[in-house]
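Dig into what follows:

_____
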Amino acid sequence: EIITFVSDNIWLPKNFIKRTLEFYSNHEHSKSLLAYPEISYSLKSQYINSKKLLIDNEKTLTIFEQNITKSFSSNFEEKLSLHSSKPVDLIKNFLNFGSTKVSFEKQPRDKKSPEKGIFWELTCASVPWSVLEDLNGVEEEYDFGNDCHETNIRLRAEYLGYDVWLDGETVVEHLNHNFQYQQVGDLWNKQPKNSIQEIVVIKEMSKITREERVVQSRFNEFDLRKWRKYDCPVQM
């Protein structure tokens, strides 16, 4: 019933599953998206194989030279600037006091600029399965490697009445993937000028609010609501 997205080399704390299940055990969160604060770390050169960084290297299973068996804070040299850790105010409290001083907190929505102000990133996030059914999955035609999915999913979900929460007690560790070995323009070293996120969000959400298109993903040749009827695993 719950889907968790994990990407970009994330280390999950021991309480991650417990806290996520605790949140969704409350029936009032049946239409809620859940975010987790993330603290970013840099890496020591001996842990990385620079020849495996290209996203189009089909033989790449891991970019690491050795298995990572401890948290990033135990393995890597130094934290990145707070600019790379999000949300900054919560991470500052976490670094200074060992806690964010925030439990489950609902994030306010800016009705005038809904694409701004809310932290919910697919680096690590959770949703009820129902949101994927209601949206009929992601809009893969916009999958250009530029992080548009998290905003696209969130805005369409909010349009259907979902809200967004933050679990301040579950801080995940994020290994920054804008590595110094990469060239500007690489899919994993994106620059704002290469992103179509703003175009997609503004253009498509405007069409939805004007009822010029449906809120569901338009080009997916399946219906996720019907998949629940089949006695087989669902892969996405």
Remarks:
- The helical segments are 16-24, 72-75, 88-97, 129-135, 148-159, 197-209, 224-227.
- The longest strand covers residues 2-6.
- The radius of gyration is 19 Å.
